Amino acid sequence: LKPDELALVLGVEVPDLYEPQYNAAPTKSLPTITSSESDKISFFSWGLMAQWSNNRTMSPKFFNLPMDSVINKASYRKKLATHRCVIPMDGFYLWKQVAKKQQVPHYFFYPDKKVFSVAGLWEEGEDGVHSFIMITRPANSQISDFQEDMPAIMDASSTRRWLESNDQEELQELLNLESKEEFISHTVGPKIRDIEGNDVSFLKPAPPADQHGNYTLFT
Hints:
Layout: H1 3-10, E1 29-34, E2 42-46, H2 49-52, E3 64-66, H3 67-72, H4 74-82, E4 84-89, E5 92-99, E6 102-109, E7 116-124, E8 130-138, E9 149-151, E10 153-154, H5 156-164, H6 168-176, E11 184-187
Parallel strand pairs: 2-8, 3-8
Antiparallel strand pairs: 1-2, 1-4, 4-7, 5-6, 6-11, 7-8, 7-10, 8-9
């Protein structure tokens, strides 16, 4: 996202050090908006740092949190009241399994490239490092061919309500709220495996290719 898009659509102050991300990945420091400072962009690391410090295995459960856990586990319900955040974006990647050892990356976005966000929870570690975990919900019919869950996506209006509401029932309803607009998608190049890379070419359509760059017949 460009800084003026964030400021206009989500009503936040964007710092000068902000740069668009084309290959956001777990462990990276990413722009977030918190319920305690909903008028500004902060930079938090993707993944719960407190859990990493005790377990260096890169488990998805440190990056993505199922909606049921948010609602049913007391520790997360407490964070839901005080430590909500969103991660603003205009698209995301999913990998499709096409063979036992082969996946093809796809880029998903709305037809008008509109801004949306994904709900999350954040924490501050003992060392003062801030981190977040992204909330997921069961995949809809469009995403279910790729995986069983999907990001808890919110439009600009729902984003504001998620950040500002103090009503637990409303917050849970927002996590369940699905957009009626479908995403469009295309395959992208396998270089997105390089999490250090970050340029607009990551978003460009590319023929389906495996991790070694060999073209396939799968779509």
